[in-house]
Amino acid sequence: MLIIFKSPASGDVIMFEKNGKEMLTVLEKDPADPKGIFTVEQLPAAITTLKAAIEADKAKKAEQSDDADKDDEPKTPGGVVSFFQRAVPLLELLERSLKDKVPVTWGV
User: What is the pLDDT of residues 23-57, one digit of tens each?
Assistant: First the structure.
């Protein structure tokens, strides 16, 4: 299943349900709701919240990387997409929507 975030300000942001629900939880929306909206008035708070979550995830990854550098175990190549990598397209959609003063919806 997919969650598609839509806005007249930009192209759609499509996520697997698990990842989309994670974003909705971070943005304090009910992930069980099959559809919803970020109104223009809600966009500044959503942008601030998502930016903070992205920075926290980057810091966590940097800390894990530092710890991994201390280990003598061989490292396997990446392949795991982190939270902040998934969140950036949604953040850009929210920012463009705020600039154009249009809402962001999903499930409609």
Answer: 999 999 999 999 999 999 999 999 999 999 999 99
Tell me how far apart the alpha carbons of residues 71 and 77 are, in angstroms, rounded to a whole number. 15
Tokens of 18: 């698990």
Angle between helices 17-26 and 83-100 (to 10 degrees): 60
CA distance 92 to 35: 20
> Please, are residues 5 and 91 in contact by the beta-carbon 8 Å criterion?
no
Q: Is 44 helix (H, G, I), strand (E, B) or coil?
A: helix
Note the pTM of the prediction, 2 decimals. 0.84
The first and second tokens of residue 108, run together, are: 């409609």
Nearest to 40, CA basis, from 9, 1, 62 = 9
